[in-house]
Amino acid sequence: MNRRQFLFGSAVLAVGCQVNARSKRPESIGPIVDTHQHLWDLSRFRLPWLKAGGELTRDFTMADYRKATKGLGVTKSVYMEVAVAPDQKLAEAEHIVEVCADKSNPTCAAVIGGLILEDGFKDYIMRFASSPYIKGVRHALNHPRQFEDDRLIQNLRLLGSLNMSFDLVVPPKLIVQAAKLLERCGDTRFILDHCGNADPLAFGLDLDWGRKPQHDADAWKRGIETLARQPNVICKISGIIARVPKGRANAEVLSPVVNHCLDTFGPDRVIFGSDWPVCTRGAPLRVWTNLLREIVRERSSADQRKLFRRNANRFYGLA
User: Fold this and answer.
1) CATH 3.20.20.140 domain locations along the chain
2) 131 near 90, Cβ under 8 Å?
3) Could you read off the pLDDT of 241-253 as tens digits, one per residue?
4) CATH of domain 30-116+267-319
């Protein structure tokens, strides 16, 4: 998909999804594309961010993923890089190309890690310029000064020229600054991961989670609205359940974040991601998927299909 084809959302930037009282029940939406699937083998790759002894400090294999998604209708998945040690990023990318080429599993595309602030990024990404499986790159941007780095702008524009996208992983306080970055890279497609790292605790519910909200709700909303004005970005509905204490997730807790993203970006610029297995910090993948189905139950069947499948197929060019 080229930029002209991607900018399908520019005419509907602030349009909310319309409520359809006759909408079909969630189970009628058909197959699901999961745009945020992690896999890792700790005997093969080092993940410095994992805490020793934590619940995620084990292998998460394709067999585990199949078990987690059984009966949910997930027919395709997009692998998301897992922040391996910097010296292993190339090996991770080459490994996932092999996984995608194996048609016996649902993983059909990948977003790889890449040191996008480094001078050697061009040589690295050009290795995958002709790969039918590598769709984009992800690298966390956590500091304001990173957005002013000329190498970042240059490398993001390179991704656009290669018809690859970039996943934005930014804290809520930097979403507005990210919007300015998108203006400078108008030919590159972006995905805002995890609803802009929203914290469900921030949204006025009387919840006792033993901690304070990680950001101000109104500031996050304004950031989402500012970012959504840029036509070259979509929003991934993912990640937020990992911030909810186990056993505490429900539609009421998650819906303020989900609905603001859906209404602000509009039905053509949102995609579903499981964030498995990180999502299991809050609830199993099945619980997250079904809660999201419950939240969008009253939206039109067409909009539900866009969220769970059609937008992802179009954005990533999946067969």
Assistant:
1) 30-116+267-319
2) no
3) 999 999 999 999 9
4) 3.20.20.140
